[in-house]
Amino acid sequence: MKIVCIGDSLTYGFGVRRSKSWTKLAQEKLGMEIINEGINGDTSGGMLSRFHNSVYMQRPQAVLIMGGVNDLIVGADLGVVKANMMSMAHQAIAKYIDPIIGIPTKIDLKNIRQDWDSFTDFNKVAKEIDEYQQWIKKFCATFNFRYIDFYSEFEKSAGDNVEELYIDGLHFNEKGNEILSEIFCREINSIKNKI
């Protein structure tokens, strides 16, 4: 089985060695081909524009689509993010690829890098991410798409140590990537016979 993961820095594994990114760890655990098509700083519009080459041309059985946070960081309207995510999911279906929507993780507001914090209002972004994750669940229920709730599951798995897992308030260290891979593997193991 082959899965493409298309997204931004959360998918790419910003800040850790390639061998320690959650997609690489998941590939080793699951014993299947997982292609990391995350690009640091990418937006949902960027993901949509490269969807054909990054996803369809690789002929996977499934695609994990997770992004949109960078859109919100630069002030894009949440409606734009929703439209782009919906478009990618429906393009996947049209090409006989199972879409799985990834719900991005929360922001650690207390530990955002200072230079980034001066760039945008991260309190506003955090509220929009909360609204976004609720919309993803409704969207997936409406169209019978699967999703992986990294937003809620990461906090459950991390417990009281969640702040220690961030590098800069947005991205995760090796231990954080390990938790992301565990969440992903658990979900894929539960659905892989249905894909």
Strand content: 5-15%
Strand order of the largest sheet: 2-1-3-4-5
User: How many beta strands in the DSSP annotation?
Assistant: 5
Query: Could you tell me the mean pLDDT?
Result: 95
Q: Helical residue percent?
A: 40-55%
Q: N-to-C SSE series?
A: EHHEHHEHHEHHEHH
CATH architecture: 3-Layer(aba) Sandwich
Number of domains: 1
Alpha-carbon distance between the termini? 9 Å
Query: Which residue ranges are poorly predicted, with pLDDT under 50 across at least 5 consecutive positions?
Result: none
Number of helices: 10
What does this protein look like?
The protein has one domain: SGNH hydrolase (Rossmann fold, 3-Layer(aba) Sandwich), CATH 3.40.50.1110. α2 crosses α10 and α9 packs across α10. The chain has a five-stranded parallel β-sheet, sandwiched between helices. The mean pLDDT is 95. With 195 residues, the protein is α/β, with parallel strands linked by helices.
Tell me briefly what this model is.
The protein is of the alpha/beta class.
Task: Provide the descriptors you would attach to this structure in a database record.
single chain; 195 residues; alpha/beta; Rossmann fold; five-stranded parallel beta sheet; 10 helices; 5 strands; 50% helix; globular
SSE order and pairing:
Blueprint lengths: L1 E6 L1 H4 L9 H9 L2 E6 L5 H6 L1 H4 L7 E5 L2 H5 L4 H17 L3 E6 L10 H4 L4 H22 L2 E4 H9 L15 H18 L4
Parallel strand pairs: 1-2, 1-3, 3-4, 4-5
Helix pairs in contact: 2-10, 9-10
